[in-house]
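Renewal narrative, Specific Aim 1. Our central claim is that a sequence can be written position by position from structural information alone. The example that follows is taken directly from our test logs and has not been curated for this report. It begins with the structure tokens describing the chain, in the order in which they were read.
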């Protein structure tokens, strides 16, 4: 954590670790979390096609027929010198035009003087743990968003 976020105090780093632990505890399958980080993104990596992720977790739940439900919590770069915490619920797409996935619910909180990284990370984690407590049924989330249901061949 100190290599990823050298500007954080020891107390801030401990806060991030504790919050990550609450997310781990909220996961339905209770398997060890697969937190990922990109040390090469500890400083803003410049323009890229995708959002540069510094640290995060992607909880994927597979169901029959190729269906998938995904919960994300990530610390990302939005601009040079500006981080944000993103959280999202995604479902596999079953639209006539295959979009791959749909973001059903999203959350972004930009880190700034009023909202330091530990506070933003906690807010994203609270949102994620609330989503993890909801039904783990992709069709439920599709209905919530008004998306077409999965058709079973």
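The sequence written for that structure reads:
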């Amino acid at each position: 954590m100190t290599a990823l976020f050298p500007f954080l105090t020891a107390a801030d780093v401990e806060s991030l670790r504790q919050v990550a632990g609450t997310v781990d505890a909220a996961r339905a399958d209770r398997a060890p979390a697969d937190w990922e980080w990109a040390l090469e993104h500890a400083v803003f990596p410049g323009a890229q096609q995708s959002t540069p992720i510094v640290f995060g977790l992607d909880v994927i739940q597979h169901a029959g027929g190729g269906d998938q439900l995904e919960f994300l919590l990530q610390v990302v770069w939005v601009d040079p010198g500006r981080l944000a915490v993103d959280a999202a619920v995604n479902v596999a797409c079953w639209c006539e035009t295959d979009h791959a996935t749909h973001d059903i619910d999203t959350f972004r909180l930009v880190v700034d003087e009023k909202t330091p990284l530990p506070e933003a990370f906690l807010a994203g984690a609270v949102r994620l743990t609330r989503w993890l407590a909801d039904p783990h049924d992709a069709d439920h989330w599709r209905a919530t968003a008004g998306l077409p249901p999965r058709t079973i061949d």
